[in-house]
Amino acid sequence: MAARSWSGGLRAVLRAGPVPGRPRGLASSGWPWGEPGAWLRRKLLGPSQPPFQRVCLVGDPVLRGVAAPVEPERVGSAEVQRLIARLVAVMRKEDCVGLSAPQLGVPLQVFVAEFRGPPLRQELPEGLRALEVAPFPLRVFLNPTMRVLDSRASFFTEGCASLPGFSAVVARHMAVEVSGLNEAGEETTWQARGFAARVVQHEMDHIKGILYVDKMESGTFSCLHWAKVNR
Ligand SMILES: [Zn+2]
What we know:
Elements: H1 36-45, H2 78-93, E1 98-100, E2 110-115, H3 126-130, E3 136-158, E4 166-181, E5 187-193, H4 194-207, E6 222-223
Antiparallel strand pairs: 1-2, 2-3, 3-4, 4-5, 4-6
The structure holds zinc ion.
Zinc ion binds at residues 12-14, 160, 162, 202, 206.
Protein name: Peptide deformylase
Pfam families: Pep_deformylase
EC number: 3.5.1.88
């Protein structure tokens, strides 16, 4: 694929609202121009190319485009395998539970999801058990399609790495089935419930250029750091 078609960037990461996770801001390094090492790399090597090692932010047109399918015969190519590896690495680095290719600037129908959850010895709070927040292993989907298994609405907090520092309650279907190709190019299906179903719906939306703010309960939209300014 030509480099230009890999331009743009959409990334979105779902984070489990009440699940402990480190807060992130626009300038987590404390340097207004970003990490000094990254600045030096840009000066020496020029701007990075997709798939980026960072998440693109809302406003980037790639976040609003409809991603293209991956040609099945190209799933094993170095280019696609590199994209999948980068998605997994950035998802883990950012402490996210899902990440789609557009979020790294690649407008292709690919997403990864993984929730390693709290340590096994740590009990989930009652509220999270009711919402079926449970760890799930790494999943990779290319050209995913989704159907609803349980259309009852589930309300829960969502965040997105493309809108760092904010969250809102979003209604999602209780259970969905997602089908597509895995990283080996094999047909795969996942029946996801509760929190896992939410992750799937969030990432499927990214592939269609939809962000959680398009579906949120707008009165719940919050800055994660609102309480700090009152201290
Ligand atoms: Zn997102």
